[in-house]
Structure formats: C-alpha cells, structure tokens
Amino acid sequence: MTAAVETRILRYRPRQRLVHWLGVGTVLTLLVTGLALLWPPLSFIAWGGVGPTLHRVGAVLFMALPFAYALLNPRQTRELLVEIFTYDREDWAWLKHFPGYFLGHAAGLPPQGRLNAGQKLHHAGTFLAFITVSLSGLALWFLKGSLGATWLPVMAMLHDVSMLAVTVLFVGHVYFTFVYDALPAMTTGYVSPEYARLEHARWLEELTPAAPAVETPETDEPTEIVVQQA
Ligand code: HEM
C-alpha cells in the first residue's frame, strides 16, 4: 500500500520568528502608549504615569530588534535587505494586478520569488519608517531642550507621520496574512506547496531541485518531506 506523503516547505526559522513576534509586541506597545501620549482622550491608558516609561522601554527594544535579527540571522538579513530594494519586470507586472490581489485573487499573477512585490514594498517601507521613527524619537528623547522652536515640531511631526506609516503598513500586512492564510509561515515556520506555488512560484522552483529525493516508504506511516529554505 502506498503511504501518504506530506510536503511542507520551511520558510522561516525559529530565530526569525522569535524576532518577528517580539517586534509585533514592541510595535503594539509603542502604538498604545504613543497614542496615550498624543491624544488626551486616550490619556487614561497612560496607567498613572507608567505609559511614558513603557513607551521608552518599548522604544529601546524596538530599536534593538533589527540588530538582534541581524546577529541571529546574518545571511537572511543580507538577503532580505537586498531583496526588498530590488525590483524586476515581474514585480512591476505583479503590482499592476494589485487590485485583484487585494480582493483575494492571486491565481494567474506573474510568478514571484521568495517575496512578492507587495511584501517587498511592505518590508522596505517598514525598514525606512523604522529609521525615521527611531531617529526622530531619539531626538525627542535626548535633545528636546536644544531642538528649539523650529526643530522640535519638525521632529514631532516626523515621529508621528513615521508611526502612522508603520501602522498603515501593519494593517495591510495583517490583512494579507489572513486573506492568503499565510499565518503558518510565521507560527509553524512552514508553508504548504499550494501556498508556495500560488504566492512564490519562482522561489518554489529554485528550492525544488534541492529537495530530498522522494522515496516510497514501505510502511503506511505518513512521511513528511521537508524542503529546506535556500
Ligand atoms: C499580528 C500582527 C502580525 C502578523 C499576524 C504578521 C504575520 C506575518 C507573516 C505570516 C509573515 C510571513 C509572510 C511570508 O513571507 O510568508 C510575516 C513576515 C514579516 N512581518 Fe509580520 N505580522 C504581524 C506584524 C508585523 C509587524 C508589526 C511588523 C513590523 C512593523 C512586521 C514585519 C514583518 C516582516 C519584516 C516580515 C518578513 C520577515 C523576514 O523576512 O524574516 N509584521 N508577518
């Protein structure tokens, strides 16, 4: 009797997932405590003065995490930084189909590599907003007294606009995660071949030659074929 063969594809290693979820925690902490600082009707969530301290603690973690990611995943960090700023013809073709993709129709779209063009734009935008929100936040924290009447509002504006960008990108990111059922990539680290074929056909093609040869087992036990990330 032929045994069931399950193929799953490794997409994110535990260290990548760990930093990602710590990042989610810090962004949410910064958003809630930041809104409490910014908008008086929400000042009740400043928890009697703890809010500003939490904002600073969250900010230190938030700024440290990309460095932790780079230390723990040096190769993946290099690849990620190159990928998110590299766009080819297929990326532009994919972006033209974005309205359909937004509505949940990914079938028939130009084949994408490890990241689709939307993910590249999301990650690049998050990276750039990370730099501006961090620099303006540091200026507001340590240079407030010396910024003067011109630079203080500029830094405050830059900080708020950058965090607004992070929030818009965050909402889009979570929306597509659920529309395309991508959550297992960041919870288990693995995706199904169907998901990979639909979203990242070129990536799947690059990985497949490296896949271990599929042997037909003699037993009825399901066999898992794990295709490792390139
Ligand atoms: C509840 C909130 C979130 C959920 C459910 C979520 C979900 C996911 C999933 C499923 C992936 C993998 C997609 C794939 O490539 O197959 C991913 C990757 C990623 N997410 Fe999130 N995410 C969340 C919040 C955030 C936030 C707040 C940020 C940054 C501000 C962020 C930044 C990223 C980045 C940069 C990657 C790529 C990671 C890498 O290449 O190692 N995510 N997320």
Briefly, what is this?
With 230 residues, the chain is mostly helical. It contains 10 helices and 3 strands.
For the largest sheet, list the strands in their spatial order: 2-1-3
Radius of gyration: 21 Å
Q: Please, what is the CATH homologous superfamily of one domain?
A: Transmembrane di-heme cytochromes, Chain C
CATH architecture of one domain: Up-down Bundle
Broad structural category: mainly alpha
Spatial separation of the terminal alpha carbons = 33 Å
**Ligands bound here?**
protoporphyrin IX containing FE
- Count of beta strands: 3
Give the CATH class of one domain: Mainly Alpha
| Annotated CATH topology of one domain | Fumarate Reductase Cytochrome B subunit
Basic shape: elongated
**Residue runs with pLDDT of under 50 for 5 or more positions:** 212-224
Model description:
The chain has a domain at about 5-20 and about 85-225: Transmembrane di-heme cytochromes, Chain C (Fumarate Reductase Cytochrome B subunit), CATH 1.20.950.20. Helices cover about 65% and strands about 5% of the residues. The chain has helices at about 15-40, 50-70, 75-85, 90-95, 100, 115-140, 145-180, 185, 195-200, 200-205, and strands at about 5-10, 190, 225. Helix 2 packs across helix 3 (about 75-85). Bound molecules: protoporphyrin IX containing FE. Protoporphyrin IX containing FE binds near residues 16, 27, 182 and 185.
